[in-house]
Amino acid sequence: MSRRKFKMTTIIDLARLSQTSKSTVSRVITGKGYVSADKRKAILKAIKETNYIPNRVAQNLKSQQTKTIGFIAEDYFSIAGDFLNYFVKIAAKYDYNVNTYFTHNEKRELEVLNLLMSKSLDGVFILTTVNDWDKILPYTRFGPIATWKRLDSEKIYSSYVDHYPIYLQILNDLRNDGRTKVGHILNDSNSQNTVATVQAIKDFSKKYPEVNNDWQVFHHSGQSAHKMAAKKWLQEADSPKTIICYNDYEASGFMLELKKHHLILNRDYQLISFDNSHLSKVLGLTSVDLKIQQQAENSFFYLYNQLNDTKIPYHRIEPRIISNEL
């Protein structure tokens, strides 16, 4: 009796199913070269439907895991270093290595995600992303993905902390302290945390219209939020003496810009920021502790649990306002 041989899927089959060319399929698999979003989506769909496994992956299936997590960030910034440090420490505790990738652009980010597809990485953590999430979601087929970005998804874990309740608390505390005008330095308007923050401002203003919250500056790509805010604050005669800023880095920049004009924190104005990083401690900024260490550890716990079929419990995160006044 003859045995029917199992036919492995090839890139030629993928090209046919996705109605693309062999070279286009190859670019998606290797992560080298440009592929449009529509074609990439079609190819990843074909890979999923056929359970395609690249040859080099098939050769390494016995090892199952590389014990390596990819840590992706668009670029380096102050809090990224803190988050990475905490993430690497908890990973080492569980015998995992962390490879760090500062991607800078969409192409490089997808190249790193392809390492997940080729099983060169067991899982991926994304601190900040360049690509839209609809481009990233298909890669969850090849391994677990977690992020620090605020994202509501069943396939990608997000360790974000909702800014709405803590922002509302700050506004209430300021009102109780007699503040009648508050300024806001906010992140990009498309950021989900900014959306939550703006909603908190709207809800508070509706309840307490006597507190003026109209002074607002939003971060825009390619522009420095703290410089824009400082310029606006210095030019206007009736600028708010209390400002809430979305992170310590921009708050410290705003503070230093005003210092050039001999304006001193907690004498000429009050500043409240987010992250409670080393910057806030050094400069004496009141800052919201978002429990960065616990966020980093929760992100790793998700990846570890998915990879090892375990149930390490997550930290319960409760932000606190910390006074670092010198």
UniProtKB/TrEMBL annotation:
Annotated ranges, domain HTH lacI-type: 9-63
Top-level lineage group: Bacteria
Keywords from the UniProt entry: DNA-binding, Transcription, Transcription regulation
Domain HTH cro/C1-type: 10-53
GO molecular function: DNA-binding transcription factor activity; transcription cis-regulatory region binding
Keyword Hydrolase among record annotations: no
A Pfam family hit: LacI
Protein name: LacI family transcriptional regulator
Organism: Companilactobacillus zhachilii
Lineage: Bacteria, Bacillati, Bacillota, Bacilli, Lactobacillales
